[in-house]
Amino acid sequence: MNAKAARKYLFAALVCAGAVAAYRTFGWSGMEPVNSLGLDLSSPDALVLSHSISSLPRDLLSIPLARDVLREDIVFYYEQNEDRLGLKGALRRIAYEHELTWGDELIRMVLDQPAEMALWRDGDGTLKHFAIAVTRTRLARLLEESAKVALKDTQMRLAGELRFGSSTAPVYALDYVHGRTLLFVAHGERMVILSHPGMLYGGDKDDRLDKRARDVVVKLLAPDARANGVLREGFQLGAGIPAGHSVAIKADFLSFGYQPFFGALQALRFDFSRNGWQSQVLLDGAALKQGGYDSRPLWDTLPYGASACFSVPADWAAMQPVLERLGADAAVDTLASQFAGPAAACWYGASHLYTPVFVARRAPANPNAAGNRDAALAGLFNAMVGPSDSADETAAGKRWQRARSTPAGALTPTLATSGDAVVFSADPALVDSVLAVHQKRAAAASDRLPAPARTIGIVNPAALAQLMRKEASDVLPSGSEPVLRAAFDTHMAPRLDALARYPAYRMVLGPLPASGKAWTRLEWQAIR
Length: 528
What we know:
Blueprint: H1 3-14, H2 17-25, E1 46-50, H3 56-60, H4 64-69, H5 73-80, H6 82-97, H7 103-111, E2 115-121, E3 127-135, H8 139-150, E4 156-164, E5 167-175, E6 181-187, E7 190-194, E8 201-203, E9 206-209, H9 211-220, H10 230-233, E10 245-250, H11 251-254, E11 265-273, E12 276-284, H12 296-299, E13 308-312, H13 320-326, E14 343-347, E15 357-361, H14 370-384, E16 390-393, E17 398-401, E18 404-406, E19 409-411, E20 414-418, E21 421-425, H15 428-438, E22 455-459, H16 461-475, H17 482-500, E23 505-509, E24 517-526
Antiparallel strand pairs: 1-2, 1-10, 2-3, 3-7, 4-5, 5-6, 6-7, 8-9, 10-11, 11-12, 12-24, 13-14, 13-22, 14-15, 15-21, 16-17, 17-20, 18-19, 20-21, 22-23, 23-24
């Protein structure tokens, strides 16, 4: 993992998923053509159910951690964002010039009342593309006036139509700031807004409908709550809008596409209200392998004092095709069958954001086959990193490492074994720390966890703030980057100070589903 990817991953883990969604979503970000991405409108990366989308950033600040770290800036960003103001300006101009009454009303109709909003990632991995679906009365007048405006306005026009059996619904395109365009279509009391024409049509200059996208929009426009719940199906969410806000995010988005390797973990959800918040995890009970999601063996091996640490229910069989494609050593093909149980990724303040340590456990094996198992690991290291500079062997296990020059500087990727533990990091010091714990020479993370088996994550705000401050010093030296460093010291450093005042938390999983997909509670408990 390079430095940029590691920082991005840790940011996603650090900031509450609801805040990420708010920041990325409510700015009405600039859109690029999306037809080349092949978005599946029936499978969004994130879904927001809210009684008032515009109030989500402010309600988010009712959470002490979000209030101290994000502050009022997130509300200002949403309310004063250039794109949002540009959209309001375009609607006001149309309403004024055509003597209409719905300039600001349309904004309120979408953002200040119950709605569901789905989001999809762009090519750069951010949530840029969205669809908003609402149920509203008084849409007939809006549609009638829109039809008249589309015939003679420069910013609003008829883009096409959708068929509903024997009837049709017009699709309108609205150009707003910087030439950006969104679509909206209404039928009966339902309205759908798409952030880019390419989500429904072939591209900027192609008016051909994407049939799969059309079918999704048609379902969203259905009056029946069961029929228009197509966006909720992938998140196992029922009909209805909560009294507050519910933000669900696919694990595939949070893990930057690695979710197929831990398919049992489907999504993370945060439910917000002015009285507090709670989180849940969507798990697929049928996909949980033998051993379920018991993370205790990992916490028994990991050193105490991590800045952030997370375990996932690894599907080792899913990695077999990747190992086969390496093609470097026939022994590599046997690796997937060696491992069992969850795997963990952890960051420590003594290292860097871009050098986490990964820990997994090997399944019991015939002692006579130990040599073959180690040969497979050696083949994997050779295929992924290169021939080992040294291959040490002790009574406790084996070790392979190789010095490499990278954009982040000189690194020494190291793979080691100790008993049934397998450890990898680009920082050999972290590997040594894990081995010390496994060999009972240092304190383990489990020493401070009352229920290690159900603990799937640890976040230590103080250690995390220290690590991020250290990274800023390395990336933004005051001598060569005085302006950016001054900006960090002025704006970011106080927030890290506020973050550091919070205690360490562990993420405790509720009962596992016996079979099928189900939401289970995820409690955030302070570590005493």
